[in-house]
Amino acid sequence: MNTSLHSSFFSGRSLALLSAVLVSLAVSAPAAMGELKHSDKVFIEKAAKAGQAELQISQIAAERATNSQIREYAHMLVNDHRQMNNDLATLASAKGVTLPAADSKSEKWSGKKPTEFDKDYVDEMADAHEDAISLFEKAAKSEDADVAAFAQKYLPKLQAHYTAARDFKKMY
Prior knowledge:
Elements: H1 3-32, H2 38-64, H3 68-95, H4 106-110, H5 114-139, H6 145-169
Helix pairs in contact: 2-3, 2-5, 3-6, 5-6
C-alpha cells in the first residue's frame, strides 16, 4: 500500500472527524455554558415587572392606606419585594438578562380616593400574587438550578402575601 496515499486518506478522515467534533462543540457550547432557556428568560422578565409593580404600589399603600393593618402589610411587602427584586437583579445579571424598565404606577394609585384605596389595594395584591404564584411555581421546576432555587426561595413569601391579601379582602 502506498504510504503517502494512506497518509492523505487518514488526514482527510481525521479532518472530517475533527470538523464534526468542532461543529458538535459549537452547537452544544451555549447549553454547556449555561445559556438560559427562553422560558427562564421570560420568567425573569415577568417576575421583575411584577415585583417592581408590587413594590411601587405597596410603597404608596404604606403611606395612604387608612387601615393600620393594611399599612403594616404594605410595609412588609415593600421590604420583601425590595429584597426579592435585588436578588432577581443579581440573578438576571448572572444570566445575562436585561431587566425591563419599571412602569410607573404612582399616578394611578396616588390619585385614588381614600375610601376606595384600601379595598382596591388588597384586590390588586390578591390578583397580582395569585399570578406571581403561578409564575413562580413553573419556574421552581426549571432545569436551570439558579432559576429554580430563586423561585423556590420566594414562593413561600408570595403565598403568604396572597393569603394575607385574600384575608383582607374579606373585610370589604
